[in-house]
Structures are given as structure tokens and as C-alpha cells.
Amino acid sequence: MIKHFEEGASEGKIEKPSDPNIIVLFGASGDLTKRLLMPAIYNLAYHDALPEKFAIIGLSKDQMDDGDFKDKVAKDLQEFGKREFDSSLYEKFSSEFHYLSGDFDSPQTYEDLKKKIEEVDQHFSAKATVTFYFAISPAIFQMVSDHLGEAGFSKMEDRKTRVILEKPFGRDFQSALDLNNNLHKHWLEDQIWRIDHYLGKETVQNLLAFRFGNGIFEPIWNRNYIQHIQITVAEEVGVEKRGDYYDKSGALRDMFQNHILQVLSYLCMEAPSSFEAETIRNCKVEVLKSITPMSEEEVQKNVVRGQYGPGEVKGEKTQAYRDEENVDKNSNTETFIAVKLFIENWRWSGVPIYIRSGKHLKDKMAKVIVHFKRAPKKLFNIVETEEVHSNELRFYLQPKQAVSLILKAKVPGSKMALKPVKMFFDYQESFDSKEGGKSTGYEILIYDALMNDPTLFSRADLIENAWEIAQPIIDHWSKTPPKDFPNYQAGTWGPDAAYKLIEDDGHNWRD
Ligand code: BG6
User: Fold this and answer.
1) Distance from the CA of 235 to the center of ligand 1, in angstroms?
2) Closest atom of ligand 1 to CA, residue 366
3) 455-502 pLDDT, tens digit each
């Protein structure tokens, strides 16, 4: 399941998907397509990791023909692509690019689509697998899914078909359930591939490799040895041009319910018996099921929300969230969340997990820190120059990609004094990863779909369980509007209450 697309990181050649494949891109002229999907597919072409018989059918309202579409993608790749544009590679890559202009709500569009697919089949002399990629607003997921179902695309005798969707999968437990039920009206669960782009990150996948590929960690990966865990996913950017979406979403829905719970499930799941997709997915769901949804009192005590006011990020003056484009002037949407939660199972019972995530924070940084229990006796005179009292295993997920272990070592000299020191593994150095920065994070996910490997995609039950964890927070917040927003200055590490949340337990965020 773990593949590398970064030069120098791969031992051998990447296996080429063997099934002929057609990707039908709903939203072919949209932002996701041009910024991430096309650059990712182009990277796959560069690595020769696309099937020999591979086509893209772009679909959107815009009037274009196949040639215009090819030209548009070429232009977008030159602007947004992650690597130098190579016209001869592009010529080959785009040889089966097709375009269909149509209204997504018209049955005619789906009839036209059928014809296009058959046309490609003829070029391939095969019935290709068809992947319908929803690079469209979630508001129309259901409508497009219904049209595809009614046109017979979900149950085709002579070929495999599937849909790929991206978050948000609903905006609370009930709407996620409704979305899943609606999709299931037409598609079997194994035809629905839900993307969480965090799972495409090498460093996130490495959590599993690190835990289960090294015999030394698993025996101590539990409540007997681990004191607490910190997960920080901090962003420097504000809401940018996405105020319209974000103001209806907020940090809880945008980051916590999905990306962060995915990271948490990798970090805390039981050892799988294999790297088979269903085994891993079952293990992840089990972790989420062991997090008891909070009572109202627990939400009050263990969850902090914040919204940025004006400030300065990396030397640039920035405006308050409420002054951002397409944001309500009185918005109560949170741009920051901190949560303390517990996984109530045999492995983790009693180990607090502190999570925080927010926009316009001091630095861009995603990291996980596992704090081990300190040695039982303070035998040594520890030099308290850093606030490190115990061993820590730190996973730097981005932008720094590294793992470090904080140990204590003797300070040279006549006294037996100790000081924290670091053992450090850096991706760039260890894997001579010259390609670093050239990946969008979608390559592995799209490649896995072409390889029919759903491991990195989320099943309906995982999404629903994640919403069950978020739901009491949504409910409590909707009843109690915040009185203190904005409560943190842009360019800081968030509201004071987030410090209190962890400091009251005698710990500190590792900024
Ligand atoms: C997206 C959120 O899912 O993830 C964005 O909608 C957020 O608000 C982004 O900025 C963060 O992704 P990454 O890969 O930059 O950490």
C-alpha cells in the first residue's frame, strides 16, 4: 500500500496500473482540477504510473471542444503544475483527453457522456474502468450521483465504475448519514471512494510504517508508557478567498472531523494483521468508536474555540476574520479549535490527547508529539533549560518532514547532569528526495484508485463515526454563541484558553 513517487525514495519502478481507465472529471474547469488534480495526474504520467490505456473526459458547463480542453490543461499545468512542462510528455499524456460541455442536471448530459465513453472504448478496444471524479461543490454530489445512477452508470455489467468524492461529507452526523444513504441508493460501498488528502501525505503514511515496521515502539505504544499525545495542525494562512465556504464550515468541520481524526486513527489504531485495505480500515474505525462522544459538560471543559482578529503573520499585517471577503461581519465561525479527548480502550484509557488546529497562527506546522512517562525517580539533576521532562517522539508531518526522539544525555563535565538531546531523521536527507515539493499529495490517491486499492480512502462508517465525535461540539456551540470572538490575534498560537486547556494538566504545547 505504501508507494513512493519521489525520486530517490523508490527502490524500484512503480507498477503500472494494468486496467484501461477513464477518469470522468465533473468540474473540469474548476479550481481543484487545475490546481491539484491535473498536476497530480501529470506527475503520474511523468513517473510512467498511468495505465497504457488511459483517458480523461472533462465535463463542465463551459463551452469547449477537445482541442480547447487540451490547450486549457496545458496552460493550467504551466501555471499550476509542480514540475517543468514537457511538451512531448504532454502530447502523449493528453492523446486521450476529451471534453463534454453540459448541464449536470440534464439527463442529456449523461446520454452524451455514455457516447463519449463508448468512443474511448473503441480506441482502447476494451471496456475501460470508469472513475467519476466529483471535483464539484458538495451541494450537487447527490444530484450528480442520482443522474449517474439513473443513467445506469452505477451498475454496468460489462465494466467497473466508481465515484470519487472529496470532503466535506455532510456538515454534521445526520447530513453525512443522509449523503451516504443517498449514494448507497445507486452505488455499492466499494464503488464509493472518499478522499482525505491528508492520507496522501508520505509523513502521515509513515506513522503506520514507523509504528509497525519497528519492533521497538509497539510494546511501549500504550497507556503504561505514554503520558499524553499532542497533535497540532497549524496554518499561517487565513481563509484566503474561501470565505464563502469556510464561514459555513469552521475549524471543527474543516480540519478536526476529517484530517485530524484520520491522523489520530493511524497513530492510535491496533496493529493490523495485514496491510489489506479492509483490515486497516477496520482498525481505524475501531479507534474512532472508542472515543466516547462528549457530554455537554465535557465539551465546555475540554474544547476551546477561537477566531482570529487582526494581527501580523510573518511580518505582514493581516485583517480580522470578520473583515475577510465573503465572511459575515458578525460571524461566530471558529477559525481555531483545541480539544482534549480520550480513547477509552485497553491501549489508551486515561491517556489525554490534546489537539489544536487553526488559521492565521504563528507558523505553518503539522506535528504529532508522543510524550512518554518520565523515569520513575528524579535521580539526576536535570538541567531545566528546556521544558522537556520526558522522552518525546515527534513526528513532523509538514512542512518539515522528519521524526525526532528526545532523549536525555549526560552533560559533559564532572557532574552527573542531564540535558535533553535529539535523535533526528529527516526525509530529505535520508531519501535524497530531490522531488520534494513536486508532489501535490493527490498522486498516491489517484494512483491507488487506478490500482483498485481503497486503503487510503474512507469508508462510510469511518465518516459517520468521526461525525459522532464532532456532533456534541456542534450541538453545544450552536446553543452557546461565543461571547469573546475574536479572541486571538492573527500570528499567535491561538486563544489563551487553549494554553489553559493543557497547562491545567501540567503540560505545555510544544510550539
Ligand atoms: C483542506 C481545508 O481540507 O485542508 C483547508 O479545507 C486547509 O482549509 C487544508 O487549508 C490544509 O491542507 P494542507 O495539506 O495544506 O495541510
Assistant:
1) 8
2) 16
3) 999 999 999 999 999 999 999 999 999 999 999 999 999 999 999 999
